[in-house]
Each structure stands twice: as C-alpha cells, then as structure tokens.
C-alpha cells in the first residue's frame, strides 16, 4: 500500500472520528433541552392549604370508629340499614370559620383544629331525625358536638333525608313484585315478564311536607346502552314514607295516558279489551336508541398535547401553583368541587369559589316527567364524580388526583383519578397585534390557562365542571352538559313538551340551572359593589355648535344595599359589575374585579309555586350579600325531599343590609333551556351547551399582568425571527423532539360501582 493511500485512509478515518464526536456532542446536548423543569416554587411550603383539605380515608375511618364507640346508640351500616334504624349517612371536612382561617394564614395565628362533619340518620328514636355532629380533633377524635339546631334553627325532620341506595333497592323489589300481577299486559305491551324492566326515580316526592311518595318511570333495559331513551309507557307511584318497609304501597299506575289504582286493575282492563296497548318489541343492542358503541374502526390518532419539559404547574397535596396563581382544591361529596384561597401574585382574590347546586326541571304529559325537579346535590355531585378517561375526559398527560368519600357505608371509598389538572393551549392568542404602519412588528401571547376539572354523572346527565386560571389574572368558571336526555313515552299531545326522538320516545324539555358561591376578597376583605354601563348624550359639536353628536358616556353607580344588588334571572344585568376595593391603582381608580356572566337560562319556577322557596336562589342571575358564617350555602341537600318547607331558603339571605366596605359574597346562577332534538341521540353534545362566568381584573393592576409572561413573542422587521434565543416559537422544532414517554392506558372506573 502506497504512502499516498495510507494518508488518504488516515484522513478519512480522522474525518469519520470528528463527525462521530460532533454527533455524540450534539446527542449529549439534546437531552438538556428536554430535561423537566423544576416544579414551580410553593408559596406555602409549610402546608397551610391543608386547613381546607378534604378528609383522608384514614381520618374518615377514625371518625366512624369514634361515632360507633361514643354515641351510646346502635349504628347499622347505611348500606344495610332499614329506615327504622340508625346509620352514618355521610362525612365531610368541617371547614373552620373564615376569621380563624385568616388569622392562621395571614397573621401567624394558631392552626384551627381539624374537624369532621358527620351526618347521621336516627330512625330508631321516639322522634326520628337527621342529626349533624362536628367531630374532632383529627386525626384522633376526642369530642363531638351537635350543631343541628345552631345551623338550622331546629331539629331536622326525618322525612327530609335523601333516599339511600338500600331504600331504592327495596322500592325496586316492591315494584317488580307488583308487576307480577299484570303478566298478560306486560307480555303484550313490552314483550317482557317485568324482570328486564328498570326504574328511574323522580323527585320531589309528593306535594306537601312529610310526603315520601315517588313516581318511578319504567324502561326497557339493554346492556351497554342508555336505557333512558327506551320508556315503555308504564309509570308507578310508590308510597315509601313508613318506617316499616312492609307497609310501603303502590298508590297509582299510569300507562299511555290513563291512570289505574293498581297493576291488578291494569291487568283487568287489558284482559277485558278496554285498554289501548302500544305493542313494543324487546330492543336489540345493535339497533337500540342510545348505543354509544363506535360505528367505524379507529382512524389515525388525533393531535396530542404534551409538555416538552414537563408540567409548568405544581400540585402538592391539595395545593396548586401556576404562573403566579395559587389555590387549594377539594370536593364536597354532595355539592361537588370547591376552591379556597385563590391568589394571584401572592394577593388573595377569592376566599371561596364553590358549586352550590344543579337544578334540572322537566316538562311532560306523563306524571314522572311533569313532576321532576332534580336537585342534584341531594344525589351527590361530588360522590358521583368517577374516574376520568385519560386522553378523552382530560389530556392524556394531565395530572390525575384521587378523591375519597364516605357515604352510605362505614368504609371510605376512593374514586381514582376523578379530578384532573392540566395546562390548556386554547390555540388562540390571549392578545396580539401586527403593526403595518410607522414601524413593522408583531407582538402576541398565546392564551394558555391552567384547568382543574372533574365530571359528575348524575343518573342520566354528565356535568363537566371546569375552573380555569388565565395568565392575565382572570378566573373562568364553566360547566358543560352532556350525557343522555331523560325521556317520556310519546302519547297524546306529547310534542307540546318536547320533540319526538324515537319511535315512541319523547325528548322532554327541561331547564338546567347551576348555582355558585363566590366569596371575593379584592385587595382585602372589605369591598363595595359598583356597576358601570353606557348611555348616549346628545351634544352640539364644540368646534362649531351647528351639529349634534351622539356621544356615549359612562354611568357609574355604587350599589349600596342588598336589594339593589339582587338581579332577577332574565332581566338585564349591568354590563360591568365589580367588587371594588377602597384602595386605588396607580391611575387613581379603585382596584376591582369584574363579574361577567355567560348564561342562557330558562325561566325560573313561578314564585307562587309551593316549592319555589327551596330553589329561590334561581330567582337571581346574580345576588350580592353580606358574608355571614351562618349562611355558608345557598341551599341544602334536605331541600329535595321537602321543598315545601325548605331547610335553607336563599331568599332569606337578602334583607337589604348595607354593602359598602363589607365582606361580600356573589351568588351566581347560570343555565340554559334544553329542548331535546334528534341530534341529542345518542348523547347530548357539549358544543353550545356551556355556560359560566368570568372574574376579570378591572383596574386591579396598572397594566395587563400577562406582559410578564415568559411565553410572550415579539418580532420586528430588524431581527432574525428564527433565532431561538429571541423567539420561543423558533424553539418548537427542537422541543418537538422531547415527546414524553406516555404511560400505558388504564381505566378502573367500574371497580367502585
């Protein structure tokens, strides 16, 4: 081999080594751009937010053990308890009084004792009643106190208790035993012997205090589909008010527009040929209304959202931080999601933001539909927030959190992954401008927000509860409705109450009204309420006095009293309504937060209705009251089964007290009228079925605080737009190489049913 050949080979070898070294160095640098960001620094490293934390499973178990050993009465587990026995209905954390919490959070005061609220049904007493006990301190309870009379002004009558799962099973057994008395009718009308028919409860249960008489609607049941769309036309009225189950009775039967005293009478009418029967066939799974099974094989994967360097938010216990935001989160087993101590840049904006109630009120020409006014808190908005499906209910890479509850059992239950937290890219600018005059530049910021979400399944409906935190200091609260419509059997003039959506199915019209509590503390606890709106004034132009100009001018008004601040549901709301601080911003305006409501609510129940006071919060799209510790909620879970003598009547909160420089609460109602239509089959879609409200800074800052967001983009005609150091968008091509390793898909949501 010649020297020249050796030198050439040596040169090639050196070049190869150099290239490999460059590749290795490049590969060594790449992972650094993909390294996870350090978690956002906590501003409460000592766990102050735990003062609001839900009970742990261990704390629940300790409370049950304490109650079993210290009440001196026999307690039967609620899942087995007869109405004539005593049981623990449910537990929740007892959130301390606001003054105690603020002394602890803001002034270095002692941590308030941790306590639980225990609700018990005492059926085995001379006067059966519902009792609420506060048990503490946790984790090792040593005392309890009865708070029922202090909270409600008297004892709670036993008939107001929500219906338990055990009671529903016993009612079901009664109904199916009565159906056996009409075998020929069932075979003709429903192609059934009754065993495959399922029941759906209505509520409230009667027409006066003390009633516990409920209409149940019967449906064909097909496994894997929504039975709510397959009514058979049969409905029964059950009296289940007696403490002895053996005394419960079927009071009335309805079929296809006619009423009967019993299933036996119904059978006699059918045998005599005096009954018009609509002969239904057993629905088949492949053709039944309501099947959600895919009709096509899977296509290409949809877009996937991921965080190249990991989450830009932090979740520690019940505390979340994100780009200046911090808050504590939790879940009431009845009323659902609740947030506390919401701060932006270290300043508290909201002390409490919580869901209060969800009302669904129906119309129909069938007795079950026409008498239905569901108050979902009594069923369990928080308790029935089940496991979320990764990648569909929330982004695949969201943070998923378990929630624990104890209801109708002595053993805590866990809804795994039932709350999710994620940063959401709306694919929309938060703000932007392209300058094409004088100087050429572009400035903008993407509209990213932190979302905390949970989804409740309440019989047929699914409610998606969102709380969103924007980088401009705004909070957005939103609810989407989906799931199945409820339906009636189509007969007579049924379409006066909805639309036909199947061969014999009437989609019944209804309203959804949702109520929230917003305890705003804007630059301190003491706030006032101010409205701003526009008027036109007609003025002569000042430069010639010969022409008229229609000039908009601003009308500001301080609302001094509660009566002025109670805005009826369907009346115009001031376009700007703000909680204002006594303190000015840099420009001399009061630091404020504006409430902006987005709602399409139907009409509220007429005030002359015997049950209207139980939902009197629905009179108002917005009402502002003085905050009082004895007015913690706008309603009660006991209102559902005795709406005629409501345990809590929100209308009583409004008594014209002064609102100037006080600790104030905004109570907000949002909702929509739903007239079901063909496109609600199989499911109602979320598109167009979303309502909510914003809390927006209004002169709270001296400029938009999002200017400090590191995601801001600025391009000029004089810079290199492709330089990663100056333009974060230019870094995305390399960031895309940091796609995360996705955890395997898992779903265990059926395990707790």
TrEMBL record:
What EC number is given for this enzyme?
A: 1.4.3.-
Which PROSITE patterns does the UniProt record give?
A: COPPER_AMINE_OXID_1 (PS01164), COPPER_AMINE_OXID_2 (PS01165)
What's its top-level EC category?
oxidoreductase
Catalytic residues at 376 (proton acceptor), 461 (schiff-base intermediate with substrate)
What does the Swiss-Prot or TrEMBL cofactor note state? Answer: Contains 1 topaquinone per subunit.
Q: Tell me which residues bear 2',4',5'-topaquinone.
A: 461
In what residue span(s) does the Copper amine oxidase N3-terminal domain sit?
161-258
- Cofactor(s) listed in the protein's UniProt record: Cu cation
Q: Where is the Copper amine oxidase catalytic domain?
A: 305-706
Gene Ontology MF term list: copper ion binding; primary methylamine oxidase activity; quinone binding
Q: Which GO terms describe its cellular component?
A: plasma membrane
Q: How is it modified after translation?
A: Topaquinone (TPQ) is generated by copper-dependent autoxidation of a specific tyrosyl residue.
- Please provide the record's keywords in A-Z order: Copper, Metal-binding, Oxidoreductase, TPQ
Residue span(s) of domain Copper amine oxidase N2-terminal: 75-143
Could you say which protein family the record assigns here?
Belongs to the copper/topaquinone oxidase family.
Under PANTHER family, the record lists:
COPPER AMINE OXIDASE, RETINA-SPECIFIC COPPER AMINE OXIDASE
Know the name of this protein?
Amine oxidase
| Organism per entry | Melospiza melodia (Song sparrow)
Q: Which gene encodes it?
A: Aoc3
């Amino acid at each position: 081999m010649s020297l020249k050949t050796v030198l050439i080979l040596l040169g090639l070898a050196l070049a190869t080594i150099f290239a490999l070294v460059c590749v290795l160095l490049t590969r060594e640098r790449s992972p650094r751009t993909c390294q996870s960001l350090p978690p956002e620094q906590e501003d409460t490293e000592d766990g102050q937010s735990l003062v609001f934390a839900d009970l742990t499973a261990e704390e629940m178990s300790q409370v049950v053990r304490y109650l079993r050993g210290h009440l001196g009465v026999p307690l039967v587990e609620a899942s087995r308890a007869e109405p004539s026995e005593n049981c623990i209905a449910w537990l929740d954390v007892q959130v301390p009084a606001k003054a105690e919490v603020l002394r602890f959070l803001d002034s270095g005061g002692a941590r308030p004792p941790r306590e639980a609220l225990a609700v018990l049904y005492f059926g085995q007493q001379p006067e059966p009643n519902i009792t609420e006990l506060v048990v503490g301190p946790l984790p090792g309870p040593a005392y309890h106190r009865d708070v029922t009379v202090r909270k409600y002004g008297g004892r709670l009558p036993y008939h107001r208790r929500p219906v338990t799962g055990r009671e529903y099973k016993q009612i079901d057994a009664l109904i199916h035993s009565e159906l056996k008395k009409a075998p020929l009718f069932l075979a003709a009308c429903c192609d059934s012997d009754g065993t495959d028919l399922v029941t759906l409860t209505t509520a409230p249960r009667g027409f006066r205090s003390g009633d516990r008489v409920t209409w149940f609607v019967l449906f064909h049941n097909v496994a894997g589909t929504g039975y709510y769309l397959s009514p058979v036309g049969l409905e029964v009225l059950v009296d289940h008010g007696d403490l002895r189950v053996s005394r419960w009775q079927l009071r009335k039967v309805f079929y296809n527009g006619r009423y009967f005293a019993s299933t036996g009478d119904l059978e006699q009418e059918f045998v005599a040929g005096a009954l018009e029967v609509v002969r239904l066939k057993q629905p088949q799974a492949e053709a039944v209304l309501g099947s959600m099974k895919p009709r096509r094989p899977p296509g290409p994967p949809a877009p996937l959202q991921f965080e190249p360097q990991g989450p830009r938010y932090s979740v520690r216990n019940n505390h979340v931080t994100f780009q200046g935001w911090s808050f504590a989160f939790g879940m009431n087993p009845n009323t659902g999601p609740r947030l506390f101590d919401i701060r932006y840049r270290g300043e508290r904006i909201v002390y409490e933001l919580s869901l209060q109630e969800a009302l669904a009120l129906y119309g129909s020409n069938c007795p079950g539909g026409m008498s239905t006014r569901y108050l979902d808190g009594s069923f369990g908005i928080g308790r029935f927030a089940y496991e979320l499906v990764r990648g569909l209910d929330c982004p695949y890479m969201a943070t998923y959190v378990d929630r624990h509850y104890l209801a109708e059992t002595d053993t805590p239950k866990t809804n795994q992954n039932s709350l999710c937290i994620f940063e959401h890219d709306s694919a929309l600018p938060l703000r932007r401008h392209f300058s094409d005059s004088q100087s050429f530049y572009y400035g903008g910021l993407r509209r990213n927000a932190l979302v905390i979400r949970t989804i409740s399944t309440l019989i047929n409906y699914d409610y998606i509860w969102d709380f969103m935190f924007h980088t401009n200091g705004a909070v957005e609260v939103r609810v989407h409705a989906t799931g199945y419509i409820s339906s009636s059997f189509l007969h007579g003039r049924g379409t006066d109450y909805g639309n036909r959506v199947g061969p014999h199915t009437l989609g019944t019209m209804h309203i959804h009204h949702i109520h929230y509590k917003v305890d705003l503390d804007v630059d301190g606890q003491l706030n006032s309420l101010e409205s701003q709106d526009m008027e036109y004034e007609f003025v002569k132009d000042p430069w010639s006095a010969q022409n008229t100009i229609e000039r908009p001018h601003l009308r500001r008004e301080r609302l001094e009293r509660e009566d002025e601040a109670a805005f009826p549901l369907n009346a115009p709301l001031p376009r700007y309504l703000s909680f204002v601080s006594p303190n000015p911003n840099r420009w001399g305006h009061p630091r404020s937060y504006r409430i902006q409501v987005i709602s399409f609510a139907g009409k509220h129940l007429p005030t002359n209705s015997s049950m209207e006071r139980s939902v009197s919060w629905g009179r108002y799209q917005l009402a502002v009251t003085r905050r009082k510790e004895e007015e913690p909620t706008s309603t009660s879970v006991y209102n559902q089964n005795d709406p005629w003598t409501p345990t809590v009547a929100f209308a009583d909160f409004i008594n014209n007290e002064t609102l100037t420089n006080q600790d104030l609460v905004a109570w907000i109602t949002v909702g929509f009228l739903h007239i079901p239509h063909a496109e609600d089959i199989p499911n109602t879609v979320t598109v167009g079925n979303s309502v909510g409200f914003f809390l927006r800074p209004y002169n709270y800052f001296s400029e938009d605080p999002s200017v400090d967001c590191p995601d801001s983009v600025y391009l000029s005609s004089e810079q290199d737009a492709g330089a990663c150091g100056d333009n974060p968008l230019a870094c995305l091509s390399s960031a895309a190489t940091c796609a995360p390793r996705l955890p395997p898909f898992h779903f265990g949501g059926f395990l707790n049913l």
